[in-house]
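Recap from last week: sequence in, structure out.
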Amino acid sequence: MSIDRALHPAHVAILRALLFRPSARFTQLQKHSELTSDHFNFYLKQLIEDGYILKNNNGTYELTFKGKEFANRFDTETRTVERQPKIGVRLMISRSDGKLLVQQRLKQPFYGYWGRPGGKVGWGETILEAAARELLEETGLTAELLFESVYHKMDYNKLTGELLEDKIFFILTAINPSGTLIEEFEGGRNAWMTLEQYENQELTFGNNTQSKALYQQATRIPVVEVRHTYDPAHY
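Predicted structure tokens:
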């Protein structure tokens, strides 16, 4: 069982202890867990088996690369794993007759809603790579892609005020789209519509008129994407 799905306070205590030191001995880690030796050893063994902690030849323990990335998401005060906004791309695609390419979502959540094509940015993927991949996978088209703006979208339950989703989208314009449009795919369908047709759909994401105005008013910002390399010993 992965600790991602069943995080025990002992797991958190061990990971947090190693977050602030290069390595530690069994007794040092046990002290932070406030558990007996047998119970502590059970949770430490889970972390090792799941690849979050490595036991060195000298008997000390340290975080693996996977463990460092995971532990770095802790709120060190509350000792909980922080939820973070999702990062995605949204594509503004139009053709010479003025129609927009829009997409109906046919999977949960937000089943049946219409919006712009796009998707999540994958781990290690640049924004442009993600946009080009999503464009081809979901529409069958290729195009020159141009950054437009960054759109921070927060979705709330209108009855309870609960935050449902927190998403940051990179908005890109697809220039001179070409190829054969995929009209239907697992999880959605695509269609060319006028802005009026789009805004008259029963279910659309947010306020379309407001969103369009925000995109038009936004100052185009430079987006710099660079891949850096580090010595493994320094991470």
